[in-house]
Automatic annotation (TrEMBL):
PANTHER family: SULFUR CARRIER PROTEIN CYSO (PTHR38031:SF1), SULFUR CARRIER PROTEIN SLR0821-RELATED (PTHR38031). InterPro entries: Beta-grasp_dom_sf (IPR012675), Mopterin_synth/thiamin_S_b (IPR016155), Sulfur_Carrier/Prot_Modifier (IPR052045), ThiS/MoaD-like (IPR003749). This is MoaD/ThiS family protein. Coiled coil: none annotated. It comes from Streptomyces alboniger. It comes from the Bacteria.
Length: 92
């Protein structure tokens, strides 16, 4: 099962600068474990205590996984996962 994972600039140090990598897994949790086996340390930047980190947004085919099943969201061959750091700020 091939799943394209789009990597944000801040995490590309784990992927040797690659903007996108291939991964596999039946769920997001399995995908992140697979990614970590080839790109050591990346999973701990995305997941904490079995949940997505608060300031990391993950999209499955452009849909926010927080509105699906979170880290338990099921994946299919050909899916696209995008990891984005949350952005905060503004004028006071």
């Amino acid at each position: 099962m091939a799943i394209e994972v789009r990597i944000p600039t801040i995490l590309r140090t784990y992927t040797d600068g690659e903007k996108a990598v291939q991964g596999s897994g039946g769920t997001l949790a399995e995908l992140f474990t697979d990614l970590d086996s080839r790109h050591a340390g990346i999973a701990e930047r995305i997941v904490d205590d079995g949940k997505l980190r608060r300031f990391v947004n993950v999209y499955l085919n452009d849909e926010d996984v927080r509105f699906l099943d979170g880290i338990s969201t099921k994946l299919s061959d050909g899916d696209s996962v995008t990891i984005l750091p949350a952005v905060a700020g503004g004028m006071v």
